[in-house]
Amino acid sequence: MKTIIYFLLFALISLNLSAFDYELKSAVKHPTKNEIFIAGTFNTMLVIDSETGKTIKTFAVEEPLTKISFTKNGNHILGLGTSGVYQINPESGETTAFFKGFGFKIHNFSPYFTEIKAWSETSVIIYDSETGNIVKEIKTDFQPYLCVFDNSFENIYVISSKIDMPNEKDFLSKEIQKSESYNTYNSAYTKKQEDGSGSIIKIYNIETGEVAKTINCPFDFAGRFSFTFLPLDDKLLIADWDGVFSIDNTGITTAIESEYATFAYASGYSNDKNNICIASTKSGSLFNIENNTWKEFDVKDNYEFAYTADIFSLENNFWLLSKDYSLICIDINGNKLKSFKINDADEEGFNVYYTNGYSKKDDRDKEAAIINSLLTQKSLPLIDLEENLDVKKVVIANFKTSSEAIKFIEELKDNKLQYLTLVAPADRIKAE
Hints:
The chain is mostly beta strands. Helix content is 12%, strand content 41%. It has helices at 2-15, 184-192, 361-377, 402-414; strands at residues 24-29, 35-40, 44-49, 55-60, 67-70, 77-80, 84-88, 95-100, 104-106, 112-117, 123-128, 134-139, 144-149, 155-160, 163-164, 197-205, 211-217, 228-231, 235-240, 243-248, 253-256, 266-269, 275-279, 283-288, 293-298, 308-314, 317-322, 326-330, 336-341, 350-355, 393-399, 421-425. A hairpin with a 5-residue loop joins strand 16 (197-205) and strand 17 (211-217).
């Protein structure tokens, strides 16, 4: 049964990639205030009180953001958009600088952000988070895929894309035996440990650009939705889309099995670096690094279904931001401590967006009839899909709260609306 559920889940994601517009993506806590900043693939940033869950303020951003983080000193937020990195004043929401380019990565509470050049002359460029000046360009002799700083920000780990590795078993602590029943991790491990490929992890000193260490890992990494990389004194811990790995100081990799394995739509580690949280749909598993033990958790209410978009840690508890506009705090045992609904986006409220995708007018008319019937019941303005043929996502309604907007979408689905509908904070006017 689990096999069927996992495959259906993956198929659902593949079919709904277009749904990634107008979705929550990232959350980060202010280093000194009870403020949680939330962003997504829409043009608004929300600021929520971490004690009450109430909306403190909202402000317009230049473009949709897939990730946000604070700089090391907490003076600015960095926001990652499709056209570059935005440096944002967390008090006013003003964009104080913009660094144009592609292949950027931003890192939580870091003095740097990075740019990965994966083609032609491959390298990782390190930029100062405050000034945008280049600190160092590190040339690589492989195609870089991901990069992470160590705790001191003196070294950078650069992880390669998938490479040929015919001797991969030389770097594996033990072979994983195929389980009798389907298990997400076990399935990935047993395939990858004998596919003749893996990845290279090189540690570079930032000041000199020299290689301090090279690790041959018998597994490659997807980093599809989340990727957690935790350097510790005696090992590296890596949580990827479909597995968790430990690499010791001799360069030997252990694939860590779990009976609670699930695909990682979001992951993160605790402030004390002793626990990793992996979540899919407000449920998942917690890995205690010191004891090498797993716990399962599930903080869904009734039969709700919502993917977790991001995880961050505060006081060694985990906060889960999910795509139904919920923000839930759990402890390291998976107990729910707080649960907030992000329901207020100031006077602009929340829009409901409809994907106007049918090519035939008859099909569009059927969809419009369903939408307008419900709009009439709610005494809301009607829409004309024919006037919006060139608009990918059409605003069909606006509500004061996200709960009202989500309920409206559920009613549309109950009435057999075919194309996707999404909820997002309505755009607000950006201060000049």
